[in-house]
Amino acid sequence: MDRSFFHHHEEHQRHALVPVCSSSTPRHTNWMLSDVPSDITIEIDGISLALHKFPLLSRCGRIRKLLAQHRNAENIKLELLNVPGCLDSLELAVKFCYGINFEITTTNVAQLCCISDYLEMSEEYSNENLSLRSESYLETVVCKSLEMCIEVLHQCENLLPLADELRIVGKCVDSIASKAYAEQVASSFSRLEYSSSGRLHMNKQVKCKGDWWIEDLSVLRIDMYQKVIEAIRCRGVRPESIGTSLVNYTERLLKRKPSYISPTCEEKVVIETISALLPQEKCTVPVSFLFGLLRFAVMLDCNLSCKLNLERRIGAQLDMATLDDLLIPSSKSSGETLFDVDTVHRILVIFAQHDDSEDGELGYDYDSEGSIDPPSQSALVKVAKLVDSYLAEIAPDGNLTLGKFIAVADTLPGYARVTDDGLYRAVDIYLKAHPGLSDAERKRLCNLIDFQKLSEEATSHAAQNDRLPVQAVVQVLYIEQIKLRNALCCATPEGPQKVPYPSHQVTNGQVLSGQVTPRDNYSNLRRENRELKLELTRMRMRLNDLEKGHESMKQDLHKSSSKKVMSSITKKIGRLSWFRDRSTFRGSASASECSKSFASKHTPRS
């Protein structure tokens, strides 16, 4: 194997490892004055640095005060505690004291600001000291660039709370907020254009380029990110941009699992913080993202306010959700059922109550009077279909109680469902998965269904479904009979006629017929329905025969009329050719005969 590889690997290890020395063996660096004996030892985190008094006394107020307590000692040893930035920051400060040149960058300016404050390297002790130089670089260079501010904020994460007290964090956050707003304004101006009528308008088809900073924020820790989002919101950045940033940050951060912190603990803090940072405006984040946050909140057992906040926001835009969004796994603590039905039920209640809600806590679609707009009919229909699909998905769960199933199904008003086929399917699946239900429970379950809103296929299936209670089947048969009689009335050639109906009555999902028992009523309705179906089939066959005869008559009539036209045209052409040479004579003769006839008819008789 190539020896250069091993040499490079050894050099990398030599630079990467930080030697840890005891207090008796001070650490010397290659830039110190090796020919001058050390007269002071500074210990930090178990590492000793052999240094000299004069360079430190000339610039560090803290070292000067500590040495004043050891005037008579020859070999002075000082221990520094809680040094910001630890050994790396101290080495930079010592280099500055020794006059060693190094470059101030975004990666070390925050450390220099903190260590200069810790060592009191101010103008009081030396001109153009480290504190002045680092703060000047922060204000004149870093705060002019959004990317540099983000990088410095990232470096400040390990320098808290001193970096916050020195206003390093505040300056960077304010600069990021102002520059993000300026980018948004500039991007908005670039999207302005004149229409054909000469009016100035915003071109929405052009992608907004002022949100490039969104991805850069994902490197920040959640506490720093929270400060930035709150600042840009106060500055006036669009809620859509904030929502996009929240989605991007959450997706990236939840994938990172540092070794120094429990992933579960970090994810819980992230979910609770992101939930609190969500914009008040509706539809600024996808509903699937809200459901993802809610899943994590349920799984990690986040605080109650976080869960309720997410549920309210989801309820405001539930019509945009899918079936996969509603399938929230149950937490281990409450896990009787496979999916968290209680959470979905609360979301449905919030959605259904929007029409009479006057709470202005969430700024969702306010009208002029300040109330929340109720969901539209199309939204109700979408949610009703979604709920029916959800019920069919959770119905096979053996631990799902009848009360929870009915509570979810009965949340929406009856007019929300155009057809009850989906609800009937879910009820049938639940009856099949729970064969031990009593007759009263099955009747209670079937009362959810409006059998008049079933399609023909679903009605036929329900009429033969043995899992339904007898009263429900009788009701289905009666409704089917009414539909068949109406179809027969409309199919008769004489037009609609009044057909006598049996004296059945439908009351609370049950069919009553005088004093006839439900079993007899059931058999009678089945027989009458079979007869009506047979009669309807015969009528349809007769109608088809009549339509076929009508078509054949139309074809014969068309053929006969075309033959007559051709024969008449042929005769006229023949006459014209035969009398072509006599046309003048016959024409004059005819004219004279006509004049004589006309004169004889109009001459008065004597």
Primary descriptors:
mainly alpha, disordered C terminus, two-stranded antiparallel sheet, NPH3/RPT2-like, SKP1/BTB/POZ_sf, 57% helix, three-stranded mixed β-sheet, single chain, Phototropic-responsive NPH3 family protein, 606 residues, BTB/POZ_dom
Would you write up a description of this structure?
This protein has 606 residues and is mainly alpha-helical. 57% of the residues lie in helices and 4% in strands. The protein has 25 helices and seven strands. It has helices spanning 3-16, 53-57, 61-67, 86-98, 109-118, 130-140, 146-156, 162-165, 168-190, 213-216, 222-235, 239-253, 263-277, 287-300, 304-316, 323-326, 341-352, 377-394, 402-409, 421-433, 439-446, 456-463, 470-491, 518-578, 583-602, and strands at residues 40-44, 47-51, 76-79, 192-194, 200-202, 505-507, 510-512. It has a three-stranded mixed β-sheet, with no helix packed on it. The chain has a two-stranded antiparallel sheet with strand order 4-5. A two-stranded antiparallel sheet has the order 6-7. A hairpin with a 5-residue loop joins strand 4 (192-194) and strand 5. Helix 4 (86-98) crosses helix 5, helix 7 runs antiparallel to helix 9 (168-190) and helix 22 (456-463) crosses helix 23 (470-491). The chain is elongated, with a radius of gyration of 45 Å. The chain starts with a helix and ends with a helix. The model is unreliable at 1-28, 358-372, 494-516 and 576-606 (pLDDT under 50). Residues 522-556 form a coiled coil. This is Phototropic-responsive NPH3 family protein. It holds the Pfam family NPH3. Residues 38-106 form the BTB domain. Belongs to the NPH3 family.
